[in-house]
Write a structure and sequence with these properties.
alpha+beta, 8-stranded antiparallel beta sheet, 36 strands, about 30% helix, 16 helices
């Protein structure tokens, strides 16, 4: 790309529901400006942006891409994002560093699930935006319906800048709402000719033109006065007023396109140039230091400061960190400081300009530039990078909690070890993914935002390490406990030549309140058991509790009293009393105390449209859930419930199905409760079967 002032740069994140045509729009942009000679198609797996093998195979965008081009002297950096919430980490990272957003809406379906979610994030981070209603040439395209859904569902003040003359197969031209001219396009999407407005579109034009003028003059009192007095307003003043309204969020410009045939593309590029800010006009950003905050004025001067918004391991160049320079200049062959890691700095030898899969070295990254660092160790997603040491940070992105969890298996123990070593490399840099060992269930758990994301991780492990990764529903970390008090004794006696083993213990078990875990009471008197052997008795009991007595799950919430016993001067030992303690606990718990299984109960908060509340509550009841409360606000319902964890592993997929993707939830551990008897029998039977398989 050419060296241009920051005023002539536009960093635009392209967002929208999957299938809206985001990648097709990028392809049309590149074709229009001459970067590519042939417009690729997502369906054929040959687009410029979707260059990963998995993307071309699945025909969907799986990772945000940086795409660059120049249109009439303005340098555009587009970030094409995935359309699935599984990849919300990528989407949010891109939103954080963009100066403006292009929200793509499918003309056939209007506002969809991800449209709503993404709109909320754009609002949260106050990102100026332009809306395009795409796929106007498709069979069920309906511009008015799509526009109406945007206004109703998002509550946005929309200002059509272009609207279609006709729809579906007849979509060939658009109306310029400012000039009233009908515009036709050539094969590359440039305006080829203009014609006068047909009589049958005048009412629609006048409605949209009034909207446009109202939005343009509302930002300027003097302009408003001139308009109300009937004075003709110059196009430049109208455009400036619209620009001010768009950048403040007071009005959202709307365009219409058919990306795969390039209709409306030049108009949209003009709109992005006019209505989205340059990096210098984006406004101040907030820096933090502990609880303190201060503004950072965006400027080409002063120390360079940037935010790492994504990092990954590239199989060819190693670790890559993508960052946006918010102020100043960063240079190669210099020390860069990681302000998020006190005292950490690293000399960088490679700054890369990125355009799709193409990279080239550059000497400097200036304010507004989005670039990549390679061959770096310390920098990670969310880190603040600076040319000078300091303490003030750009706040890292806040991500939703991980909601999808699967156990990772291999065909053998050796393969599982190799998989466990590979996965951290694959997920490095993505804060929405986690991989950890659950020592209770002895499983490795991969956690993320959805099934598509986790299966993609498994696919990449297969590709990198040639290992077959099996993803399964995780085991539930059940517990065992007792329900009544009981007591008994156990004598461990063994004589096999030489010194024998002898230890006898008498114990009493009493249930404890949930969450109290374990209490041990030494009530020995008169030297029935010497004090030096008491810790061994307790150790044996603790080991027995770890193994369980019902189905092999850890024992909890029990008070154990050691009240009597016997010893032998010669044959008694720590080992003998440890064994006696262990066996006594197992015997008394199993035979005298009516042991039961406990299961983890989760606090679940579900957010759904009010119209879907009944279906969601019915589903929660079917999962043995208890609804604890409900709140309603702005057409949304918040349902709070307690649900057994065993019933929640399939919930992300089921909730998506029930609510057509519009429902979300968060979950956290609450407490343990007794498992119903009929379910406990099945769990115990499964545990016994698994134990037999291991032993055989």
């Amino acid at each position: 790309m050419s060296e241009v002032p920051a005023e002539r740069k536009r960093n635009v994140v392209i967002v929208g529901h999957h299938g809206a045509g985001k990648t097709s729009l990028v392809e049309a942009f590149l074709y229009n400006v001459g970067v590519i000679e042939r417009r690729g198609l997502v369906e054929e797996g040959n687009t410029f942006a979707d260059f990963l093998d998995e993307e071309r195979e699945k025909r969907i965008t799986l990772m945000s891409k940086i795409i660059q081009c120049t249109y009439k002297g303005t340098d555009f950096t587009f970030i094409d994002t995935p359309g699935y919430s599984d990849f919300i980490g990528d989407i949010l990272g891109a939103i954080r560093v963009a100066d403006g957003a292009l929200l793509v809406v499918n003309a056939e379906s209007g506002v969809e699930v991800e449209t709503e979610k993404i709109w909320g994030y754009l609002e949260k981070y106050r990102v100026p935006r332009v809306v395009v209603i795409n796929r106007m040439d498709k069979e069920r395209a309906d511009y008015a319906a799509a526009l109406d859904s945007l206004e109703k569902e998002l509550g946005a003040k929309l200002v059509p800048i272009r609207f279609p003359v006709a729809e579906q197969a007849e979509f060939k031209s658009v109306v310029d709402v400012l000039s009233g001219k009908v515009q036709y396009f050539n094969a590359k999407g440039a305006v080829e000719r203009e014609e006068n407005l047909p009589e049958d579109l005048k009412d629609q034009y006048e409605e949209y033109h009034e909207r446009l003028m109202d939005a343009a003059v509302e930002t300027d009192e003097a302009l408003m006065e001139r308009y109300l007095e009937g004075e003709a307003i110059p196009k430049e003043d109208i455009w400036n007023g619209l620009q001010t309204a768009a950048m403040s969020g007071g009005a959202i410009p709307v365009f219409c396109t058919a990306a795969t045939s390039s209709i409306g593309i030049a108009c949209l590029l003009e709109g992005l140039t006019n209505f989205l800010p340059s990096p210098l006009r984006r406004g101040e950003i907030t820096l933090v230091k502990g609880d303190q905050t201060k503004p950072l004025h965006i400027s080409a001067e002063g120390p360079g400061i940037g935010l790492v918004f994504r990092s990954l391991i590239d199989p060819f160049v190693g670790k890559m960190c993508f960052l946006k320079v918010f102020s100043g200049t960063l240079s190669s062959d210099t020390e860069l400081y990681d302000l998020s890691k006190e005292g950490k700095h690293e000399r960088i030898s490679h700054l890369l300009n990125v355009n799709g899969k193409n990279h080239n070295n550059i000497a400097h990254a200036r304010v507004g530039d989005i670039v990549a660092l390679t061959k770096v160790d310390i920098f990670e997603t969310g880190d603040t990078v600076s040319s000078e040491p300091g303490e003030w940070l750009i706040p890292p992105t806040e991500y939703p909690p991980r909601s999808f969890h699967l156990a990772v298996k291999g065909h053998s123990k050796v393969e599982e070890d190799k998989i466990a070593a590979t996965i951290p490399k694959v997920i490095a840099g993505d804060p929405t993914l986690a991989f950890e060992r659950n020592h209770e269930t002895r499983e490795s758990i991969l956690s993320g935002m959805g099934d598509i994301q986790l299966n993609l991780v498994a696919q990449r492990v297969r590709k990198i390490a040639n290992l077959e990764v099996l993803l399964k529903e995780p085991k539930v970390a059940y517990r065992e406990t007792i329900t009544v008090q009981g007591e008994g004794s156990y004598r461990h006696k063994k004589q096999s030549g030489g010194r024998g083993q002898f230890g006898e213990v008498h114990i009493r078990l009493t249930p404890l309140e949930r969450g109290k875990q374990f209490e041990f009471q030494d009530s020995i008197f008169g030297g029935a058991i010497p004090g030096k052997f008491i810790p061994s008795v307790e150790k044996g009991i603790r080991e027995a509790m770890e193994r369980g007595v019902v189905a092999g799950f850890p024992f909890v919430d029990v008070h154990v009293e050691l009240f009597d016993g016997k010893y032998h001067d010669v044959d008694s030992s720590d080992m003998a009393f440890k064994i006696a303690g262990s066996m006594a606990f197992q015997q008394v718990a199993r035979e005298k105390c009516k042991p039961v299984l406990l299961e983890p109960i989760m606090n679940v908060t579900v957010f759904v449209p009010e119209t879907m509340m009944g279906d969601v509550m019915g589903d929660l009841n079917g999962r043995r859930g208890r609804v604890m409360g409900m709140e309603s606000a702005h057409g949304k319902q918040t349902i709070r419930a307690q649900v057994p964890l065993a019933e929640m592993y399939s919930y992300p997929i089921d909730l998506r199905s029930i609510t057509r993707g519009r429902g979300t939830y968060i979950m956290e551990f609450s407490h343990y409760e007794q498992v119903p008897a009929e379910l406990a029998e099945k769990i115990i039977a499964q545990a016994e079967k698994a134990r037999e398989q291991v032993e055989s």
